Amino acid sequence: MRFLKLRWIVIALVLLALVGGVWRALSARQQQKEAAATPTPAISQIELAAQDVWTLQAREITQTLALSGTLKALNYAVIKAQVAGQLKEFSVREGDVVRAGQVLARIDPTEYQRRWQQAKDQADAAKSQMEIAQRQWDTNRALVDQGFIAKTALDNSQASYEGAVATYQAAIAGAAVARKTLDDAVLYAPFSGVVALRAAQAGERVSVDTKVLELVDLSQLEVEVPLSPSDSVDVRVGQVAQLQVEDRPEMLSASVQRISPSAQVGSRSVLVYLAIQQPAGLRHGLFAKGHLNLQRRRLLALPLSAVRTDRARPYVQVLKTEGNQVQVAHQVVSLGLRGSDASDPSDSQAWVGVEGIEAGTQVLKGHVGALREGLRVKFTAPAPASSSIAP
After folding, report:
1. CB–CB of 210/187 below 8 Å?
2. pTM score > 0.70 for this model?
3. How do residues 247-299 score in pLDDT, each as one tens digit?
4. Which of 365, 366, 351 is nearest to 300 (CA)?
5. So what CATH class is 45-62+297-387?
6. DSSP summary character for residue 61
């Protein structure tokens, strides 16, 4: 009996604890609902500075296209060995300035001199045989005219002469080939420039088509820029670009000289070539980035950061005067040309043309953030129009 009483006491205590926990949970949920239902006091006014407002005006906007590419010399050559042999003379090194036609290296010509001499001697021998055949033919022709020999002998001598002529011409061609091989043992500079790479050393034996030197002409440099097919549509010859080479502070001018008529097979990019106006101090292979000026128009424009896109259609936050109060309003706009401010090349922010809004409208800058419509505005400075930018 005592055990049963103790059991019922334990069960009663557990039930009381459960009921207490449920009651506390329900009470907490009810408090949360009441707190959520309690309206939060809405902010009815915000204080802004004059620097937080743009005054919409017309300005010159230059549409630009971001680009990047590699500097390349217009004249660039990889000089290879045309014949096999040992490099006997090699006097130039990287950075040396050479002129067109200058001897850069010589391959040991001994073997090729012997071959040319052999071919020349064979040509001289063939010439002697041709002259003998010609004299025999002339003699037989005179004898045939006098009736001393048959015409068959004349035909045979004529055939011998023609064969000797063919042999002589073949020997001359062989001697010319041997002479060219001998001349190819000397490597000349195809144009004036600077030695960019020396890939072999004096005394080294090279085979045919072995790279010996790389030569560049730094007086004419261009930038090879790959563009997507859609971006290349608006590019035209003569358009001007501003480029920065390897993060150097100064900007360089370049103009579009050539546009590839076809896209690359693998990347589907279109190559555009821009000529550098002042190549002094630049090097072949450096990296360049910048923007290309596509077109320039005068229109109503705002910084792109002032346009909000958190709704289905882009809009700007403007200030409207209702009675003696200034309030925030949302104005839907249509976006047009995007680019940079032509009147201020140092301005790096992006600008965009807008339609659906009147000139002179005061527009809140992007850093102000999203504000609800109807919010009253108070300025810390008396004249917000002072922040407008002259066109």
Report:
1. no
2. no
3. 788 888 899 999 999 999 888 999 999 998 777 788 888 999 988 888 888 88
4. 351
5. mainly beta
6. E
